[in-house]
Amino acid sequence: MTTRTTPGAIARSTRSRDGTAIAWWTSGTGPDLLLVHGTTADHTRWEVMTPLLEPHVTVHAMDRRGRGGSGDAPDYSLAAEADDVAAVVDAIGGPVDVFGHSQGALCTLEASLRTSGMRRMVLYEPPIEVAAPPEVRRRVAELVARGRRDEAVGVFLREVAGLTDDQLARARTLPSWAARVAAAHTAVREEEVSAAYRFDPARFARSAVPTLLLDGTESPPDLREGTARVAAALPGARVTRLEGHGHVAMLTDPELVVREVLAFLAG
Questions:
Q1: pLDDT higher than threshold 80 for residue 1
Q2: Beta bridge partners of 11
Q3: What are phi and psi of 246, to 5 degrees?
Q4: Which residues are bridge partners to 212 per DSSP?
Q5: Contact 89, 66 (CB under 8 A)
Q6: Average pLDDT of span 29-51
Q7: Which of 61, 95, 172, 184 could form a disulfide with 35 if both were Cys (CB 3.0 to 4.6 A apart)?
Q8: Which of 46, 65, 38 is nearest to 4 (CA)?
Q9: What is the pTM of this model?
C-alpha cells in the first residue's frame, strides 16, 4: 500500500510485540515528538501541522496498524495498538514526547504503561467510554461493506467526531482525505473496541509522565467529560481549553495547537 508523505521525510519501521510492522516518517530537527493519529486517518493527517513543528522538533508521524505503510493482524485489540505506540517510542530511543489525537490519544495513554521511553505526552480528547450508538456503528459498517467508503467516513466524522458540515467539506479538500477513505474499514473495529473499553483510574495513579490534555470547548460533551476523567486520574496533569474549537483544532487552527504543544513540551 502506498501513502503520501512530507517531502524529504525519512521512512522508518519497527515490529510491534505481535510481529506486526509499524511504519513512521521522520522530519525536522530538535527533541523527538511522536504523532499518533485518530480514527479514519494515517500519518498524512498531520500535513498542516508538520511544517509548523519541524523547525522546533524532530517529528515522527506513525501509521497505526491497518493503514498506510503499517501492517495488520487478524486479531485486533486496543492492547495491540498500545503495544505499537510503545514499540515506536522504544525504536526511536531516548526520551520521546508523544502527541495523540482522539483514538490515538487513547492508544498513547495505554502505551504510557508499556514503555519507560515517554518524556511527556499530550492527549487531545481520548474517547473514554465513548462510542457511536449501535445504529451508527451498523450504518458505517454497512457502507464500508457496500464499498461506499467515502460516505462511511463522512458519517463517522459528522456523527461521531462532531464535525460541522463546513469542517467536513474542508477535510474533503485535503490530500489526506484519500487516506481516510482507504482506512474506512478500521473505524468499524475501533468503535467496537471503544464501546467495550472501561477506564480504570487506579491503573494510572502512579503515572510519572507529565501530561497535557487538550479540551475543545465546542467538542461533544462526552468527549469533554472523558478528558476531565483522564486529567483527574493522572497526577499533575494539566488541561488547556481550546476556546471556540471542537475535536479537530488541528484543522481549524493548527497554529494554536502547535503553540500549546510546544509551550508544554518546552516547560
A1: no
A2: 25
A3: -105, -135
A4: 122, 238
A5: no
A6: 95
A7: 61
A8: 46
A9: 0.93
Cα Rg for the chain, rounded, in angstroms?
17
Task: Name the E strands within 136-227.
Answer: 211-216
Q: How many other CB atoms are there within 10 angstroms of residue 17's CB atom?
A: 13
pLDDT band at 267 (very low <50, low <70, confident <90, very high): confident
Give the integer Cα–Cα distance in Å for 133 and 138.
9
Place of cell 503495544: 83
C-alpha dihedral (221, 182, 69, 92), degrees to nearest 10:
-10
Q: Identify whether the C-beta of residue 199 lies closer than 8 Å to the C-beta of residue 128.
A: yes
Closest CA to 150 of 182, 119, 104: 182
Torsion sign across C-alpha atoms 257, 260, 263, 265: negative
Cell numbers found for residue 118: 515517554
**Portion of the chain with pLDDT greater than 70, in percent:** 97
Cell (9 digits) for 114: 508499556
pLDDT single digits (tens) 98-135: 999 999 999 999 999 999 999 999 999 999 988 788 89
Q: How far is the first Cα of the chain from the last one, in angstroms, to the nearest whole number?
A: 39
